[in-house]
Amino acid sequence: MMERKIRLRTVNAEITCSLCKGYLIDATTITECLHTFCKSCIVKFLEENTTCPKCKEVIHQSYPLNYISFDRTMQDIVYKLVPNLQEKEYKRQVEFCKKKGIPFPQNNTTESSKSYEPSSNNTEPQSNEDKDYHRSDEQVNVCLECKGQLKTLKRKFLRLSSHATISQLKKFIALKIYNNQSKYKDVDILCNEEILGKDHTLKFVQVTRWRSKDTPLLLHYRPQITSL
Q: According to DSSP H, which parts of 82-165 are helical?
């Protein structure tokens, strides 16, 4: 069977962000219309708008940021099609952190670059002593308050990696109050009375919901709405 080669320019329209006109980085898809953009581009756009910038469909009148999610498949396709893009993005992040004088997180700052690591001849397995368990990540101080007919956590103040997701936090709460991590879907987590999406990271919540407020980031948990 003959292989058919195609020119990159023939698929450029499918793998570029219509907001910045560059190749997709941290490809993020709107769940309502399935249009995809760079994460930083669409988050910035939705801070002032409630419609898709491409088709103008209303995403949500009040909380459009709850209806976007990281598209791992699309990002993998972009990195496979565009030579050296992932490596260049990794180096760009390192250079940015160096210029700003901030530490570069060991597991990288963006979703799409987590799978990339510079090549190394050292193939020895990493010992437990070398692992920092995300301690080198940017940290977020969180206060978890009970709202509803659930047990109050004995330890409500937490210091967590900014990369931790709401889904992971729900599993932690389910383990503490139900002694069963698999019941995390029975829990809602809210910020400013708004239910947070399961894929939101704490950094994303802090920037979009708690930007001008003092720490800690105040989150409430309650029984999932269908369980009330």
A: 85-100
